[in-house]
Design brief:
seven-stranded mixed beta sheet, alpha+beta, Aminopeptidase, six-stranded mixed beta sheet
Length: 273
């Protein structure tokens, strides 16, 4: 199973939001043109790090910066050996939690932490609803978080939905039934891995623990569609500390799973060819 950023769906999504994509040897390379400077070349969690392809594409697109986010420590060591530097602030989460969806629904539920199991059961009557109208979903998101957090442009969300189709779920929830803006989330599936992609919860949603039921519904949806793994797409990593991540990390850990680490982000400026 490959990372979602190496899927054809994700490549389609990035093309729609303004990136160029080259696919060599089943690996996605993302290129962003920068006026006067050339371009930025980005490679995210490839199954195989092909250095000659990186050099080829950096020359072709006149890249002044190359960003590589390897999947394995061995690749990270290689990048260091050829002059790449580790970034202090990674682009992708360097640590995450993954659940095994091949287990039965009951086993997954039993393996939740006690508080999470209680809140999933407590919120079972929350009115979770798949949102087909993406503009409606975004408006609810913006209303929920105000100016405190970034909300992707509508064009990006529409592109995401178009690219992933039935392998995407935009879901909202709240009590009472008409207050469907208390919480929401986007789930994606790429190559049998489901991702808790983005989420929001307002003050009322936090009071009623609305996000617990949303995540549980996302897990059930992913399992029904045949996903084998559920990825929480990022938790707090003391190697690259970001205190603001501690709160939602506690929430995510309550669902159990095992921790997965990635080496970080490596970059090279004005690569000599």
């Amino acid at each position: 199973m490959t990372d979602i950023r190496q899927t054809l769906q994700y490549a389609k999504y990035l093309r729609q939001i303004g990136w160029e994509v080259e696919r060599l040897s089943e690996t996605n390379y993302f290129i962003k043109k920068v006026p006067l400077l050339g371009s930025v070349l980005k490679l995210q969690r490839p199954e195989e790090l092909r250095y000659n392809d990186i050099k080829l594409l950096s020359a072709k697109h006149k890249a002044f910066q190359i960003i590589v986010e390897p999947k394995a420590e061995l690749d990270a060591k290689f990048l260091k050996s050829v002059g790449y530097k580790l970034c202090r602030s990674p682009y992708l989460p360097t640590k995450t939690l993954q659940l095994d969806l091949t287990k039965s629904e009951n086993i997954i539920l039993v393996n939740l932490k006690k508080d999470a199991r209680y809140l999933v059961r407590k919120t079972k009557n929350n009115k979770c609803k798949e949102i087909e109208n993406i503009e409606e979903f975004r408006n609810a998101w913006k209303k929920s978080v105000g100016l405190k957090r970034y909300v992707p442009p509508l064009s990006h969300l529409l592109a995401l939905k178009k690219s992933f189709g039935k392998n995407s779920l935009f879901i909202s929830a709240g009590l009472p039934a008409e207050a469907l803006a208390q919480a929401g989330a986007i789930f994606l599936i790429g190559d049998r891995i489901a991702y808790y992609w983005q989420a929001f919860t307002n003050k009322e949603g936090r009071k009623v623990s609305a996000q617990y039921q949303i995540v549980w519904q996302g897990i059930l949806w992913a399992k029904k569609l045949g996903a084998k793994v559920f990825d929480f797409e990022g938790t707090y990593d003391k190697r690259f500390p970001n205190k603001s991540w501690k709160g939602f990390t506690h929430f995510k850990k309550s669902f159990g799973g095992h921790e997965v680490y990635y080496p970080g982000t490596f970059t090279k400026i004005k690569v000599p060819l």
